[in-house]
Amino acid sequence: MIRSHCLLAVVLATAAVAVHAGEYAGRVKSSRGDVTIERSGTRIPAPVGTTVEVNDQVRTGRDGSVGLTLRDNTLLSAGPNALLILDRFAFDTTTHAGELEATVQRGTVAVVSGKLAKESPESVRFRTPTSILGVRGTEFIIEVIGRPEE
Amino acid sequence: MRLCFSLGILLALAGCASERVVLLPSKDGRPSEVVVRWQGVEHRLDQPYASATRRPFVLSRTATSSGEVGELYGTTLSALPERPVSFVVYFLEGTDTLTPESMASFDRIKAQLVSRSAPEVQVIGHADRVGSVADNDILARTRADSVSKILVEAGIPADLIAVSSRGEREPAIATPDGVAEPLNRRVEISVR
Predict the structure, then answer these.
(1) Shortest Cα distance from A91 to chain B (angstroms)?
(2) Of A65, A69, A133, the CB nearest to B192
(3) Most CB atoms closer than 10 Å: which of A33, A143, B87, B153?
(4) What is the DSSP string of A81-148?
(5) ipTM value for the complex
(6) pLDDT tens, residue by residue, A66-76
């Protein structure tokens, strides 16, 4: 009962429509253990070098961890049993305008903010299932525990 | 029925999740801040190791430490990609020839490419504030293109290189518009 409502919440959250879907946003720089990316309903393994696109859902298994560098030099990493969704990403290399929005559904994610947060902090947002984070030139950790694994 | 459903959602949220946000010291010393918002409650984290924890129905400020962060989040932190590193090259006046010191930095760039996983090279052109913004976008792009060519000639694979132009938007030395400044006529080579 409780579990199914958790799942429902996850499904609703991940069903949110993302703009810029499929756009190249970054690259996998470290990958240990079980790491996959779910893209357009298909799960693919995500070794070092894999490109990350808008709308990707990055998952790690029990022994997994992953590190990503986005095009604006934002660094992200996720520890074991994590689900990180890149909801929105756009970055103009000339003006540094754009946006970054990502959701930590479960697990632990570390963030080192990049050029977007430096140029326009209001364009960078991180979410958890219940909270929203605003960011200003920052390194931080987001931890979401007790969410169900599917 | 509806009440039961709402109650179910509340129980689900209460039962299945807690969240925590921890601000870390910023490595480059820039001012650092995270604002955590949850249902109208807001916590501003602006000191290293300040943290906010959301347990069922409560968002509270909690303290943590470097040791605790290492213990709890060491695996996650060690998966962070290596930080990007930048090299700046300058041109001999009135030419598209790099200064000898600039050429010498190529070996260090190559060493970075060997040591990093899935390396990428960003070649970013900059201009001073003589001329229009649009003209400087083109000028800085031309500079970046010529550095990109030199990098390829020096043996750096072309498919790792992306060229862009910041024009006059990011001067190394701030000046009023129209001022010639050699240190702003540069190309940044960033490896990540």
Answers:
(1) 12
(2) A69
(3) A143
(4) T-EEEEEEEEE-TTT--EEEEEEEEEEEEEEE--HHHHH-GGGEEEE-SS-EEEEES-EEEEEEESPP
(5) 0.87
(6) 999 999 999 99
